[in-house]
Amino acid sequence: MTRQEAKDILHSMTTSESLLRHARTVELVMEAYAAKLNEDTVKWSIAGLLHDADYQAYPDLHPNVIFNLLQEKGEGEIAHAISAHYTKWGKSYDTLLDKALIACDEITGFIVACAQVRPQRLEGLETKSVMKKLGQKSFAASVDREEVSKGAELFGVDMREHISFIIEVLQKHQEELQLSPQVTNQG
What we know:
This protein has one domain (3-171): Hypothetical protein af1432, CATH 1.10.3210. The protein has helices at 3-13, 17-36, 41-50, 64-72, 76-83, 96-116, 127-134, 145-155, 159-171. It contains nine helices and no strands. α1 packs parallel to α3 (41-50), α2 runs antiparallel to α3 and α2 (17-36) packs across α9 (159-171). It is an all-alpha fold. This is HD domain-containing protein. Residues 20-103 form the HD domain. It comes from Pontibacter cellulosilyticus. InterPro entries: HD_domain.
């Protein structure tokens, strides 16, 4: 499967700007980790891009619709990773891809939430600030902190290093992601 085919699938089921941005951020982080670990960057980025593709259109069936579609297209490894990207679903984590997707999904969304409440957005965002916000249960309350911890543990990464890596990846794309510093009128 090509990235364009994956993008077409995503856009056929998702119109929400925030979900499309989440898909793109997880795609970027997964691609960067694949490059760092000498894994298949296309496969990893597509898993990131499509992990929530069916969430808006089929919330009660998520992730089964995208899982079945990918299986039909012969993309079993990506399909499995997507079916297992939340530990409470009880799926096995067989590959590094499976573990990476769990590790990157929730925390990437959380880091974007941290950036969105800052006038400087991603610019200058520090790991310690994200760690502090993780401790505030009322901030981005829908983010499952237990899932964030389990993901890093399964993937075998130090939480601080993981957050730092993700921030760095997202900063490289902050303009595209509309997470550049806000411009204010002076005077």
